């Protein structure tokens, strides 16, 4: 199938903000594709040529792309740069410059979806000497055959900045419609595999039966099961009858996979951070069994007995350089709480079984490996849970988890089978869409951040401005991130791609015509930058309204 067809779909998607319309456009398109093209189209609709958990990225810097565009069009780099400044977007700039160029030296060949996809993928494999010129030649081959509209989307795909506003949920619904498959079956397959291109491909080739056969595979991360907020320890334990209560550690959630000789670490967002934690890989090699497994736990860092901030741990695991120094300054340890795979998938077994198995197979000799502190409670001995809660807070952790021991692990589900009871009031996870630079001494920093949550069509709706809560260092870091994701600026105001997730505490939710949600937050305070969360994890208007 020609890339031109895909571009038509991109344009149609850009023309609507309605989720149902987007779903229809995608499902009509998906149903026309063969299974390989389908898997490619799904990834591209989501803005990349790699599945989300892949460590690979296209890694094409502005400079390289600008230089390629200027070569293809025979114009100066400055002209390209001016246009980008003007339109605020490299894709739009390309389209405009291509249109201005009347000579027909292009169209030397017709671009297919497969060719565009494979060419962009190839870029990530190029390294070493001469890599820049090899990359340029691939980009030139693509861009010199492109029409203005194709150039617009190719350049966006090269930088993984497609911004079609397509959420995973829309693609899931589209696959379900295109191949008339029950949504729940699609969801299950997605939560297990975390790869919609695979789900699409299996739907097309084998239908519902094929999807039901999909299972956990070590090496491929699985969406974590999430917790609901508990109203109280007693009411939650009462509801469950019996419960496993564990300390809710203040670190980052980690999935550890062993697949043959390979060990991988994935974060809550299923980012592969294996390379950043070499010392932990060694620990796991020695303390864990030789079989294939998937284990979940919280990874924390302590210095002189005190927990190091969540932000520091995240920075450490996302680090690409100076890893040796970080091993010393941010010493990590693991508190394990679940076992999803051991020789075979066991996530459908009850938690009590999985926990017992975990206890059997883990060697606790190394002090970096621990099991989560836990108690088995009923209403009769509920004081054990309360004691555990107090111990958690005394050790600077967040509270306790209350889990139903009879329940299976359901990937991606936020349900009542696993609950959290925290000392601090609930917060909101929001995405930053803009900001304003400060005045006077603070004019180097963005002092106020415009925050948004999402509606039922996955459109972003603003909810508040927030500026307090961060240290100078954090403000600086955030300002740098904002510059990285800048779409455009107007005076002291800046608008950014929705990439930065913040956790916000507040005193009250109030009605307010000032923001698109119709609500606002009183005294919002930025608790932290949630680098472990993505746009899929932000809060919804629905939840906000229910909390109001
Ligand atoms: P929060 O913002 O409260 O961390 P979240 O949205 O990241 O919530 P939830 O599922 O709501 O995730 O809360 C559970 C989180 O608590 C897990 O993601 C995990 O990182 C952390 N955690 C700490 N200790 C445990 C434990 N013993 N069992 C399960 N999760 C734990």
UniProtKB/TrEMBL annotation:
Record GO terms (molecular function): ATP binding; DNA binding; DNA ligase (ATP) activity; metal ion binding
Active site per UniProt: 248 (n6-amp-lysine intermediate)
Gene3D superfamilies for the chain: DNA ligase, ATP-dependent, N-terminal domain, DNA ligase/mRNA capping enzyme, Nucleic acid-binding proteins
Cofactor(s) needed: Mg(2+)
Record-level GO BP terms: cell division; DNA biosynthetic process; DNA recombination; DNA repair; lagging strand elongation
Domain ATP-dependent DNA ligase family profile: 325-455
Residues binding ATP, per UniProt: 246, 253, 268, 298, 337, 414, 420
Stored PANTHER family: DNA LIGASE, DNA LIGASE 1/3 FAMILY MEMBER
Positions in coiled-coil regions: 354-381
Entry keywords, A to Z: ATP-binding, Cell cycle, Cell division, Coiled coil, DNA damage, DNA recombination, DNA repair, DNA replication, Ligase, Magnesium, Metal-binding, Nucleotide-binding
InterPro entries associated with the record: ATP-dep_DNA_ligase, DNA_ligae_ATP-dep_bac/arc, DNA_ligase_ATP-dep, DNA_ligase_ATP-dep_C, DNA_ligase_ATP-dep_cent, DNA_ligase_ATP-dep_CS, DNA_ligase_ATP-dep_N, DNA_ligase_N_sf
Gene name tied to this protein: ligB
Reaction it catalyzes: ATP + (deoxyribonucleotide)n-3'-hydroxyl + 5'-phospho-(deoxyribonucleotide)m = (deoxyribonucleotide)n+m + AMP + diphosphate
Entry's family note: Belongs to the ATP-dependent DNA ligase family.
Record's protein name: DNA ligase
Main EC class the enzyme belongs to: ligase
EC number from the UniProt entry: 6.5.1.1
CDD domains membership: Adenylation_DNA_ligase_Arch_LigB (cd07901), OBF_DNA_ligase_Arch_LigB (cd07972)
Job of this protein: DNA ligase that seals nicks in double-stranded DNA during DNA replication, DNA recombination and DNA repair.
